[in-house]
Amino acid sequence: MEDNNSNTTDAQQSVARHLPGLLRVFTDGRVERFIGNDFVPPSINPQAPVASKDITIHPQTNVSARLFLPQTTTNHRKLPLVIYVHGGAFCVSSPFTANHHNYVSALVAEAKVVAVSVKYRLAPDHPIPAAYEDSWAALEWVASHRNKSGPEPWLNEHANFERVFLAGDSAGANIVHNLTMMAGNPNSELPMDILGACLVHPFFWGSIPVGSEALNPDMKGMMDELWAFVFPSMADYDDPRINPVGEGAGSLEWVGCRRVLVCVAEKDVLRDRGWLYYNALSRSGWMGVAEIEETEGVDHGFHLSGLGTQKTIDLIKSLALFFNRDPPPSI
């Protein structure tokens, strides 16, 4: 019989990098993820309020997505289209985990939208900028349906390309911001307008502590380590992709949509960064409408682990209202 204690010691000695609660990397290159490994199959059950199915977007890079469609839809009414980007610190989770599948399903059921939940490649196997590149490729794939001639019937038949939104949580919200900056770049060739973006508990950071960050040096150190881990070739905590309001960041006037909703949680270490982003966007000269909502008494990602709670229900209702509200006038 093998000695479990001896095996544990050998495993510990071969660990090259350990991110508590997320993953560890062994010296032989193996990656062991502690969370986000479960898989919930899609469902086209006609009795369910939301149907879902999986599609491949880019076979060469394995970029894929889970599509969601409310069962109450008809061919006579086009629905708002939401491209959703999941969180997970750029290194764990997917649209196929129970947490994200159930959350997006609940959002689609409440908001009556078509959703494309994007699966991008994860660090450390595929460090940043892979997550941004994959999400942009998914955005271009979605845009190929704008004339009802794309490869996916659900988008051709049911999506309203006059009401396209980006949404994401944590690292996914970070990706959403960066997608809007890419879309708003004057040199962008994206053949589709983005009406709005929802950033839920966005993962932004920086070298200089903001607000309550200074009171928690351990958390500051962990977040610093995380960014260096997922982006080892550019471990700069003021890189504009992680710190969109830093000195080296481009102007937020480039945000390529007309509405932005930032959602923060009172007990989240990232809360103050969310407020900083909202205030900077509001003052930037960007010709859009920015909003912010704070949920009291909860921490980062509460909506994923407490789907049936009243605060999660309220958050979903806020996003549903955002997707269905009349757009601001063109400026």
From TrEMBL:
Tell me where in this chain the Alpha/beta hydrolase fold-3 domain is found. 82-303
Asked if the keyword Hydrolase belongs to this entry, the reply reads yes
The active site consists of S170
What Pfam families does the database record attribute to this sequence?
Answer: Abhydrolase_3
Q: Which InterPro entries match?
A: AB_hydrolase_3 (IPR013094), AB_hydrolase_fold (IPR029058), Carboxylest/Gibb_receptor (IPR050466), Lipase_GDXG_HIS_AS (IPR002168), Lipase_GDXG_put_SER_AS (IPR033140)
> Does Hydrolase count among this protein's keywords?
yes
Please provide the record's keywords in A-Z order: Hydrolase
Annotated SUPFAM superfamilies: alpha/beta-Hydrolases (SSF53474)
Q: Which domain of life is it from?
A: Eukaryota
Q: Which GO terms describe its molecular function?
A: hydrolase activity
Family, similarity comment? Belongs to the 'GDXG' lipolytic enzyme family.
Q: What is this protein called?
A: Probable carboxylesterase 2
Species, as recorded: Abrus precatorius (Indian licorice)
The gene behind this protein is: LOC113847699
